[in-house]
Amino acid sequence: MTSFEIFRDLQREATEWRRYLHQYPELDYRLPNTAQFVAEKLASFGINHIETGIAETGIVAIVQGKGGDGPTVGFRADMDALPIVEASGKPWASKMPGRMHACGHDGHTAMLLGAAKHFARTRNFKGSVALIFQPAEEVELPSGGLKMVLEGIMDRFNISQVFGMHNRPGVEIGTFAICDGPIMASQDDFDIVVKGRGGHAASPSRTIDPVVVAAQIIMGLQTLVSRKTDPMDSLVISVTKLKAAEAYNVIPDNVEIAGTVRTLSSELRDFAEREVFASAQGIARGFAADIEFTYRRSVPVTFNHAKETNFAATAARNVVGAASVNDKVRMSMGAEDFAYMLEARPGAMIFLGNGSSPSLHNPAYDFDDEALVYGIGFWISLVEIVLPV
Q1: Which residues are annotated as a binding site for Mn(2+)?
Q2: What GO biological process, any one, is recorded here (predicted)?
Q3: For domain 4-183+301-386, is the CATH number 3.40.630.10?
Q4: Quick one: CA torsion of 200, 202, 208, 209, rounded to 10 degrees?
């Protein structure tokens, strides 16, 4: 087992980088300061092949090993923050109003930078490492992962395998979790406009009340999960937006509903798209109303390939020991746009414990700097496995 203590010097630097990035979060593709910071650090390590401006503010840097020619393996970190007002109370809290790193992308970026410094000074591998710094993981279509793939990074840099890592609150620091096959769900979104006939709230009999219809649709959609799918399958349908009249005494003409669908199989994605529409339309027509329906397929299932999952699990064990690696973790219904890279090339996503921190996307969340050393160690161990001299 490789002792993580040898990476403590990198952790100290990475902590400084991480806290700087945390104070100056940027959103979606608009990452000029973050991208400049990353590019300058990579150059300071002696990395010469750095390409910027991919998917607007993304970066791919290539480190050639001293072991000679070999494959190129991609390691990905996301860089963007979220439009959330921070409430962590930390000395390094966001200085940008209404923005914060509430998902730990500052930590992901700092860990890959720490590993990059080690790769650049040792180059003890055969082949090349492609360091992928991605914008816009948190946005919907087109997300940064999809855009980088569409701009051809896999072919352009001859990437043969690709790996990602994401921190996970509730998992002990110094532990990892992974599984082969589906590890995170697909994400689809829908909008429904319920079209009725408005009027005065004191005379509901003269209206076709779209508020009542919308309420029935919201409840009806839940039966798609509880009564129309196998209980052993994973499907989540959540209505998250509801917009009606703004006055107490008005029944509106229309009501807007929106929500999200998560699943772990393409068959259930097809089912959900078909049945959400059919259920909503059927309920509406039962009340003499109608609907407008829009369904958008967003992130696909994050699917870990078996060989690469074994590589990642082995690398994690080399850093923290077998007892601290769960290689059969329960699948998550969250979504991750690293899925697009895993569709383009074989690879795997692994979870890194962030301890008992608040959940992701919570105003009180913060990446735990004690986790940095394990993430840096993972990347370094993974290179030793997939690109041995």
Answers
A1: 103, 105, 138, 166, 361
A2: diaminopimelate biosynthetic process
A3: yes
A4: 90
